[in-house]
Design a protein that fits this description.
The protein has 16 helices and 13 strands. By secondary structure, the chain is of the alpha/beta class. The chain folds into two domains: 2-225 and 404-423, Glycogen Phosphorylase B (Rossmann fold); 231-399, Glycogen Phosphorylase B (Rossmann fold), CATH 3.40.50. The strands form two sheets. It has a seven-stranded parallel sheet, sandwiched between helices. It has a six-stranded parallel sheet with strand order 10-9-8-11-12-13, with helices on both faces. Helix 1 (17-29) crosses helix 16 (403-423) and helix 4 (118-135) packs parallel to helix 5 (149-159). The longest helix has 21 residues, at 403-423. The chain is elongated. The two termini are 21 Å apart.
Length: 424
């Protein structure tokens, strides 16, 4: 089966959970021998793992015809890019896009991030998708998150092939209900045009059905999984101070993630004991506010803000933690607790997170219940038997949650979607 997939980020260059999920999902799907995935991203950096899929850089796909020779194209595209693909794509330019700013190859230079002109980049991405959709050969289209829904719609209109969209989050999650009407419009349009909608949790599925008014029959739950730890990660030593426990929050410091509840719970714990340190790793628009809140609660001496962590740093901090806390207000799924549990770290998560639907060997509280959260933190840090149970059983549980299984479920959805699409 050939899949044309549209994404926005891909490891090792990731800005959030979307890239991590895209990698795990495609790697898991690729275990099926006849699965052929072409993954489009705005700007590849050249160090992506292409051993199990083909990556197309939208910034290397021409939308304005330029008379350029092979050697020039090869030099401009750099290593890892196929000049012949450029010429094949150039033959499928379908309109006059000279009003769009392009470079000397007739390509749009995407940032590869989430710039201030994001809506413009989303629109340009969908225009480039029209060239890719005309040139590539595939059975089904799969678009990840709202940024690529317009591209998926365009590809469907061009090819007549069915469109599956993957909802990793909605604007109701990102905004705590203060929804951006432009984003909502893009999301709803994608859902309306989709032949099937995969959601990373039942929580998200219900949002899609009730807030975006979608037919429940075309919306399914497709929980995420976690990739096995790489050997270099397994080799990172666990560093624990027997005299002090470390409790960690790791993620974007934004209102969606509930950082203020973590600080308030920490203040309550520190009234009962002083031998615990709290770490809030990450960056976001609430970072300064959280630093001030920790100071206002008189716990700044027990609180650490190491900033944004990526790659190996994430696992170094997890392996030095005794408890991991994710107090998200609205978390479509949340892979980070699974990563923590892989590292033998007992975890506390909110009921308002999608991963709570598949995890049982952890402690769950409501995000707003700082008393319950504080009790859970204190108990894990104070009672060795509870710590040992959650540490050992948690790892067993997440080790059984694999992307290969997710890949097989996605394949089944593809086949059902194709069958329904061509029979109705």
């Amino acid at each position: 089966m050939k899949v044309l997939m549209f994404g926005w980020e891909f490891p090792p260059h990731i800005l959030g959970g979307l890239g991590t999920a895209s990698y795990g999902l495609t790697k898991g799907m690729s275990q099926q021998e006849d699965m052929d995935i072409t993954f489009c991203i705005p700007k590849p950096w050249g160090d992506e793992d292409q051993s199990f899929l083909k990556i197309i850089g939208m910034n290397r796909t021409p939308i304005v015809w330029k008379d350029v020779d092979y050697n020039f194209v090869k030099e401009r595209l750099g290593d890892g890019a196929d000049p012949q693909l450029y010429y094949n794509q150039r033959d499928h330019i379908y309109g006059d896009f000279r009003h769009i700013h392009t470079n000397d190859l007739g390509c749009v230079e995407f940032s590869g991030k989430y710039p201030d002109n994001l809506y413009e980049e989303i629109n340009n991405y969908s225009i480039v998708a029209g060239v890719v959709a005309r040139q590539q050969n595939y059975d089904i289209i799969h678009s990840h998150d709202w940024l690529t829904y317009p591209a998926g719609i365009h590809a469907k209109q061009v090819s007549g092939k069915p469109l599956v969209i993957h909802v990793h989050a909605t604007d109701f999650d990102r905004s705590r209900g203060n929804v951006n009407p432009t984003v909502y419009g893009i999301e709803k349009n994608g859902m309306d045009h989709a032949d099937h909608i995969m959601c990373v949790s039942e929580l998200t599925r219900q949002t899609v059905i009730n807030k975006y008014h979608q037919d429940p029959r075309k919306v399914s739950t497709m929980h995420n999984a976690v990739s096995p730890l790489a050997p270099e990660v397994q080799a990172i030593p666990e560093v624990h101070d027997p005299k002090e426990k470390v409790v960690t929050f790791l993620g974007r410091i934004t209102m969606q993630k509930g950082p203020e509840y973590f600080v308030e719970a920490a203040a309550m714990v520190l009234k009962r004991t002083k031998n615990i340190r709290f770490v809030m790793a990450g960056s976001g628009d609430m970072l300064d506010e959280m630093i001030r809140l920790a100071a206002a609660r008189g716990i700044a001496d027990r609180f650490h803000f190491p900033g944004f962590m990526k790659g190996k740093q994430v696992y170094e901090i997890l392996k030095s933690s005794d408890v991991y806390v994710m107090p998200s207000v609205s978390e479509p799924f949340g892979i980070s607790p699974l990563e923590a549990m892989q590292c033998n770290v007992p975890s506390i998560i909110s009921y308002q997170s999608g991963c709570a639907e598949i995890l049982s060997k952890c402690i769950k509280t409501n995000y707003w219940d700082i008393h319950a959260m504080a009790d859970a933190i204190y108990s894990i840090c104070s009672y060795p038997a509870l710590y040992k149970y959650l540490r050992e059983e948690g790892k067993k549980e997440v080790d059984a949650i694999t992307w290969e299984d997710v890949g097989l479920r996605i394949r089944k959805r593809y086949e059902e979607t194709l069958k329904y699409y061509y029979n109705n």
